[in-house]
Specification:
366 residues; mainly alpha; name from scop; 4-stranded mixed beta sheet; 4 strands; 6% strand
């Protein structure tokens, strides 16, 4: 019973999401469009950009509106009210309004792009656009409506409305004397005052929203990091997926070593001599002066592999000679298929000369 409980506890803790997300997990989330971002930052940037533009070029906007209104009055007094004239006037008004609104829309677009790029960089993901049945699941929809995140969003909205109302009231209260006298001003001065109040209020609210948006971004970052946490089992599964199952990898390496050793052993019959130390190391050399510049190692091994090399050499009547220092040097310094280094030429030449004298010919090869 205790063993069962211990096993269940270990399984529970292995599934508990307590670990920071790995780079692979972060990249997968990013590919799905899941990133830490605040929707309030683009709104704040757009508001500040639009009202800054209006503060510098508000006169041009007002002049454009006045021109449009003035031209309408002129057209109405001079034109006959027909369907064609009304259509022409509306098209002209739409065009003039578009010219006036285009800079504001352009500023909004640029500021929105900048704000999003500052948060998440360049990101294009189609995953949020894909149709998923779980999004229309009533049960999951109800859970989202009554979740803690929804309550947090509601609280944020209430705080935002409260602060925006307070800032708007403060700006208007500071200008209350001018507002009270607006009825005594000319139409141009009244419009100028109203425009100034709108720009001041908009900038103040924009700066406030930017401050609240930065706080919201900190919260979104924290919430995002919490949501992408991984359990210890998740990390193990990810490692297996990316690197491969360790058991399978070891089997593959074992097969590769076996194939490599088989190919190496198959080359031993063409060797001229096997040099041993005598038990731990064995190195098989081949030399054909017509094809090679220097003797070449065709097989080498230690312990069990060395034993197999010596058995194969004995099977094919390959001469085996003992030279502890040379066997060790060849094993550690020369890879299979490489030639003998110059500093070992003399020792190897002496052994080959000995082998050739036994075989009864002065040249190399079989």
């Amino acid at each position: 019973m205790r063993t069962y409980r211990l096993k269940m506890n270990l399984q529970y803790f292995s599934q508990e999401k307590t670990e920071k997300a790995t780079p692979q997990k972060r990249q997968d989330s990013r590919n799905k469009g899941q990133v830490a971002r605040s929707a309030e930052i683009p709104s704040a940037f757009m508001m500040i950009g639009v009202f800054l533009f209006m503060s510098f070029l508000g006169g041009w906007i007002i002049e454009g509106l006045q021109t449009m209104i003035r031209s309408n009055f002129v057209y109405i007094t001079n034109w006959t009210l027909t369907e064609q004239n009304v259509d022409l006037m509306l098209k002209d008004n739409v065009w003039q309004a578009a010219v006036i609104a285009a800079p504001l829309m352009g500023i909004s677009l640029v500021m929105g792009v900048i704000a999003n790029y500052m948060q998440v960089g360049f990101l294009v993901s189609t995953d949020p656009l894909q149709a998923k049945l779980e999004r229309i699941n009533p049960l999951k929809g109800a859970k989202r409506i009554f979740s803690a995140r929804t309550l947090v969003e509601l609280l944020k909205s209430l705080i935002k409305i409260t602060f925006i109302s307070a800032v708007t009231f403060t700006v208007l209260w500071n200008k209350r004397e001018e507002v009270m006298l607006i009825s005594q001003k000319s139409i141009g001065d009244a419009i100028s005052l109203v425009g100034s109040l709108i720009v001041q209020t908009g900038l103040a609210v924009g700066i406030l929203l930017l401050f609240l948006a930065l706080l919201d971004y900190v919260y979104q970052k924290y919430d995002f990091e919490k949501n992408i946490r991984m359990s210890k089992q998740d990390i193990k599964d990810e490692y297996k997926k990316s690197e491969g199952d360790p058991l399978i990898k070891s089997k593959i390496k074992e097969k590769q070593r076996a194939l490599g050793m088989n190919r190496m052993i198959a080359e031993i019959p063409s060797a001229d001599v096997v040099i041993t130390n005598p038990t731990h190391f064995a190195v098989a050399l081949k030399y054909d002066p017509n094809e090679m510049d220097k003797p070449t190692v065709v097989a080498k091994g230690m312990d069990y592999v060395a034993l197999k090399i010596k058995e194969k050499a004995k099977e094919h009547d390959i001469i085996t000679t003992e030279n502890v220092q040379l066997a060790r040097a060849l094993y550690h310094q020369v890879e299979i298929g490489d030639g003998v280094p110059e500093d070992l030429f003399k020792a190897v030449a002496e052994i080959l000369a000995y082998v050739y004298s036994i075989k009864g010919y002065p040249g190399g090869g079989n």
